[in-house]
Structures are given as structure tokens and as C-alpha cells.
């Protein structure tokens, strides 16, 4: 249930205790993620084991623009896709299609680096991290104001790619103009937050373009999805599972899990709900990663 965050510097020095805590914290979540896509238990456990090894190997080039959990889930997602390709699976979702692999997936790939991925995209290099921070601030501000309808509408538009008409009907709003008004006010607030930053010359025009034409070189929608800016913290999911969450946040969590189908949060929720003994898998994971960690520390 903890929202524990690992120390990246310790992970990058291949600290065994920190990696052991990572394994204890995230094994169930990764297994739950794979379980929704891979029917074979042995294959799921192999994916989890390979994901941790990939995380250890790739940690020296970790990009702090994203959280460690995003990094780890990105690797697990790649390993799952690779398995499904090998099995010639025909049921991969459109979000998992190789042509739709997101930036976070590439960041998790061992043979690529962030600088290589975003070269020749100066506006993204300069503004992406700032945009991510601004979006997170807006979500936090909206959540604290109990504006969960507004949050769901914006998530539906940005993350889900819903049309105004579909959004209006789903949330019982007056008409499509009401949806457009919510989006306009959200983008206006994002511009206000951006105007106080040192890179406002990049962010503010990009957000203005988003409001006018719906797309820009600095993609608000992609950043929202890849940054997982609206994913509720694990303790909120635990409270939802326990039935102790108030109506407003509970409604948003339901929407996020069921209608947005957030694979990351679904895995966290499943992990909280599952009662299986993960000790045998943890032993396998610990054994394989410990060997790699020893090899790195001995050489250094």
C-alpha cells in the first residue's frame, strides 16, 4: 500500500538493499500487469524477472523526467509486447502496437538514450519536462479543489481522445459548448501556470496552439498520457478497494480504471486485491538481479 519511492542515486550505484526493496515493492504490480495480457503463469513470471534485469541494466541512463515506476512499467510493457509478438498474438491493443510505442517505452529500452530519441526536436527538449510539471500541478490543484468532473472531462479529452459530443453525453453536460468551455478554462489555467516559468516563451505559445487547433509541436495530450499525470497514488487505490474513499475521488478512480483503462493503475489495483504468495517469484527475481549486481560491483 506504500507510495515508497526508491533513491535513484543508490540504484545507480547498484546498491543491493535498495534494489531488494524495489523488487519487494513492485513484483506484485508487474505480475498483475502481465496477468491481464499473458495467460501463461510461467511466461508472466519470466516477464517480471526480465523486467527487473532490464531495469538494473538501464538504470545508469535513467531520465528523471519520469518516475521510477513509469520507467519500470515501461520496461515490463516492452517485455510483454515482445512476448506477445513471439507468440504471434493477434489481440494486442492499439496502444500496444509497435507503431504507437510511446516515448516512455523507448526510454526503457536499453540500447536507446533520451538524447537520441528526441534529437532534432528542440521544442520538446526544451519544454517537455516543464510541461509535464505544469500538467501535474494542474491535476493536483484540480483534485484538491474537489473538481473531479472537470478532471474527468479533461482526462477524457487529452488522454482518451474523446470527441466533445461523446464527452458531453457521458457526463451529462448541457451541450458540446460546455465541454469546449471546460477545455478552454483548463488550457487558460495551464498558460497561467506556465507564464511564471523561465521557459514561458516556449510553453505559453504551445498551449495557445493547443487551444486553437488542437495540436502543437509540444503535444499536451501525449505528455499527459506518457507522464501519467492523472494517475491516483497507490494509497487512493487502496482506499477505493477498502470502500473508504469519498464519492468525488471514488468516481474519478472508477472512471480512470474502467473507462480510461489505465494499465498501470489497473495493475496496482489488482496487486492490492490479490492474495497470492509471491515468495517463490521474489526468490527468482532476487537471485537473478543479485548476480548482475555482484558482477557490476566487483568490476567497479
The rounded Rg comes to: 20 Å
Uncertain segments are 89-121, 212-217
Total domain count: 2
Query: What structural class do the secondary elements suggest?
Result: mainly alpha
Beta percentage is: under 5%
Counting H and I runs of at least 4 residues, what is the number of helices? 16
- Measured as a percent range, the helix fraction is 55-70%
Q: Characterize the biggest β-sheet.
A: none
CA-CA gap between termini? 35 Å
* Overall outline: globular
In total, the number of strands is: 0
Overall pLDDT confidence: 82
Query: How would you spell out the order of helices and strands?
Result: HHHHHHHHHHHHHHHH
How would you sum up this structure, described in words?
- This protein is mostly helical.
- The chain contains 16 helices and no strands.
- It folds into two domains: 137 residues, no CATH class; 105 residues, no CATH class.
- It is globular and about 60 Å long.
- About 13% of the residues have low confidence.
Kindly list the characteristics that best describe this protein.
300 residues; 2 domains; mainly alpha; 16 helices
What's the quick description here?
The chain contains 16 helices and no strands. It has 300 residues and is mostly helical.
Write the SSE topology.
Blueprint: H1 8-12, H2 16-35, H3 41-58, H4 68-86, H5 103-107, H6 114-117, H7 122-144, H8 148-158, H9 164-171, H10 176-194, H11 200-213, H12 220-227, H13 234-242, H14 247-259, H15 263-273, H16 279-299
Helix pairs in contact: 2-3, 2-4, 2-15, 2-16, 3-4, 3-16, 7-10, 7-12, 8-10, 8-14, 9-10, 10-11, 13-15
